[in-house]
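Researcher: Last one for today. Full complex below.
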Amino acid sequence: MTMIEVKDLSKVYGSGETKVIALDSVNLTIEQGQFVAVMGPSGCGKSTLLHLIGGLDRPTTGTVTVEGKDISKMSDTTLTELRRRKMGFIFQFYNLIPVLDAVENTALPLILDGVKPETARIKAKEWLTRNKLEDRGSHRPDELSGGQQQRVAISRAMVADPVIVLADEPTGNLDSRSGDEIASVLRKIVSDWGRTVLMVTHDPRIAAYADRIIFLKDGRIVDDALLSGDNGDNAKRLKEKVEAL
Amino acid sequence: MRIQILLAWRYLLGRKQRMALTTLAVVFGVTLLFGMNAMIPAMMEAFRHNMVTAAGKVDISISGDSNNPFDEASLDALKDIGGISHSTGLLQKNVLLPESLGGTTDPIAGASAVTVTGLDIPTAQSVRNFQIKEGRFLEAADGSETVISQLLADKMSLTVGDTLSIPSSDGIEKLTVVGILSLSASAGLDEIFVPLATSQRILNLPDKINTIDILIRSDADRLTVENEILSKLGPNFKSGPVEVGNELASALIMGESMMWLFGIMALAMASFIIFNTFRTVIAERRRDLGMLRAIGASKRTVMGLILTESLIQGVVGTALGLMFGYLMCLGLLASFGPMLQSFMRVSVGGPVITTANLVGSILLGIGFTVGSGYFPARSAMKITPLEALRPSLGAAEFRKNKRRALWGLAMVAASVFGLVIGELNVAALSTLVFLAGLIMIAPVMVKPVADTFGKLISLVYAREGRLAQGNLARQPGRAAITASSMMIGLAICIAMIGMITSILNGFIGYLDKSLGTDYLLMPSSLVLGGGNLGANQGLIDRIRNTDGVEAATSLRLAASQTKGAALQMIGIDPEVYPQISGLAFSNGDPATAYPALANGRSIIVNGMFATSAAIKTGDVLTLKTPQGDQVYNVVGVAFDYLNAKIATGYISQANLATDFNASSDVLLLVNRKTNSNNSAVLSALKAIAKDFPAFSLIDSTEFKNEQINMFKQAMSTLYVLVVMLALPGLIAMANTMSINIIERTREIGMLRAVGTTQTQVKRMVFAESLLLSALGTTMGILVGLFLSYLLLKALIFIGFTVDFFFPATGILMSVAVGLTFGIIAAMVPARTAARTVIVEALRYE
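Model: Here's the assembly. Have a good evening.
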């Protein structure tokens, strides 16, 4: 089943001499249960693609369809509701609320959706447990390591039972060991829990956890490949590919 | 809503110092608003207590429409009215008891005043039931006998047969107590009853009464009878008791408006601080808010979060403000009490909390806080989810402020033009325009001011000064807002100090002119209408016949109404008064105004009345008098020192006697011959004054000094208010400095990491704070001068001719206060910055 369909998607910033084409007529289809990594050099438009698919930004031209619905023309309210119920976001800098503890941070999307606080807490604790943070529920972000903070952020992304998880450089702020841990969790989201994951990364080692790699250059898709086999070999091949780009 | 409350509460608790400082601003505003407005009603209550005139429990009470006494013969008009069962005429007045006659200012322990009621013995008892507890009631043959209320008997330890001395128009009246009324008969008042003729002698009002008490027949309709009575008596009468102290009440109401203004100004400053805080909070939480939007928080949820935070602070601040306001009022009343007791013979009780004050303070306190959070909340609402994904750059603020500054410049120019036009309303509006203009110009002023003062600081701390300069210049908008809150505080300081100094100088001049005599015979209360008892011709005659006295003149008093407002009438001798004293004219010519008073019905009105009633020289005024409406020509606008704050009209004493039935002297002004012996004249006058205990003999020089001291004392209270208004500026500075430091934690960590010492970090913060205060002070001086000029214009407009006195002291003080504030505001943030743990700071998000 097609989860995400992108047609002739373009995003242009500025005008005249300062005009920057971030995305140029991109076409892409992502099936349900796929783990897709987007790679490419800096400024190639990978984050812009993620923002447009996540409904965080509006395209200049083209359409983005999620579960058969065109989100590019949705009102802000409908789009906000869609993000709350259908999408989970993971950011490079975790973006946890510093004054809330791990359980409260995880429960945020449910509370925003009007779920009873007690029910929200129970679900939040379940996800924290799945991410091996059961004993860190009452800790505030500044009392957690970077890897732990990102696992709280993943729990938050999953708590509302989204169909798509969008991750923007989720390991960009972590050491390699923590990065691997996070990538494994993302893999699990697809393999064990059946969600679709779209991840932007510049790290071939992390991208190697994905099923499919999309390479972007100058706002266009220059390669779209399925991965199979050993992670280590995949990472090596991806590194060479990135260097070639 | 739950999420907003949870997040708002957690954010507030997470930044306790900032919450405390921001809330403190609201606390200040509400404290001033609530506390000062609890004080005025307390004072009004005290005056009312002293001046209350009791009406007996009768069916109908009739008094003069102008609240003046009227002829006893008016009673004849009631004879033919069928519905009346009984009627009686009374002459009633509140008389202050001087200490020499056993008076005290403590209404619980003793009596400060007595209500003297003259009764027509044959008819009085048929209208009102006088229940005698001890002794007997008054009889037709009585003269110097009195029946007193039990309350007064208890307070003054009087029993039947004792003598009670009270002041009278010819000195002292010694009355023999023949009866004591039971408590229920006198409704808890300090009342004494005397035969009507005796009261007329005591009050120097022969053949006059001021109240008619009426009982109606049981089968008669009260309203019909009342209407019939009023139509028979004519338009100069009204139903209801004599109202006293109206003029003073208007002055106090004006004071109340001033207090509201002060409170609102303080709250406006608080709003500025809150606005600034929330503006910074939004900038600081852009990523949090962006993340919330990304994971599905609606725009309204984000806006609600900020508004909930401001609401919590508003509620907490207002609650604390109410508490501190009450305590402040208690403190002020305790410190003002002795002054009021000695000068006005009133004892002020505790704070009086009116519903309007309580509700108004709560609404304004919370309203201003939530209102000032509104615009930052709106800007928070506009934060896009993308903000969460962008790494924090600590972006420098390089906004194009040029266009705004040009607009600001145009506004400042327009406001200066508005000030010189001469219209008060336009000038007041100009001040707002000036303020807004300056705030718009402020961001472009940041760099030049930072450069100029930065050079000075660099002389002492070269590196830190330059860093501080750069820090300010990269966020000129925020620096301007911080400086603006300080600017408002200092501007108010300068304006108030300018006004206070000008008024002080002006009033000393007026005092010299109004009371330019050698001696004064002052009534017990400085408020002329406040229960003072005048003297008959005997006193001034004795003074004039004293060896060494060159001339003596007096002020007489009555009440009137015109244009729907109460007007205090003062009778002067148009020939003698200008020779030994004089009014300060703001409109009209003294050379023609005084002689005009002697010819026909002419009046000089004071500035306060002229302004409120829009009266000028050449207008005509229809005054209510006991003889009906009388038309007076306005021949000048002028005032004397004592009556500057009360709507007053000055007419000739001859007219006051004819039209208002008033011929008692309430204040006497005496000049001695130049070659006479001061101590001899003084002791001769003292001997006369002893026979008139309602008066105190005062050497004018002493009195003037006393008045100047009192004025200075009152002004020093204003200085306290001024400082209180400036304090929120300090809070704003400290608040913004703290926020800046928190926000720059990583940057400070980096500076420490590359080798900046703790002392250098401290110096940098201090330098930044000093630069901010320099900007605030520069702007404050400009606005302060503008405001002080405007305030004086307003004073001139309401009739006080006060010369503009350049507030050099205020400016120097403000510079000192500004720089001190700069240092104080930086103390905690500088310490916090210096103690930054490098590793933690570099990890800080």
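The mean pLDDT of chain A is 90. Residues 2-244 of chain A form a domain with the Rossmann fold fold (CATH 3.40.50.300).
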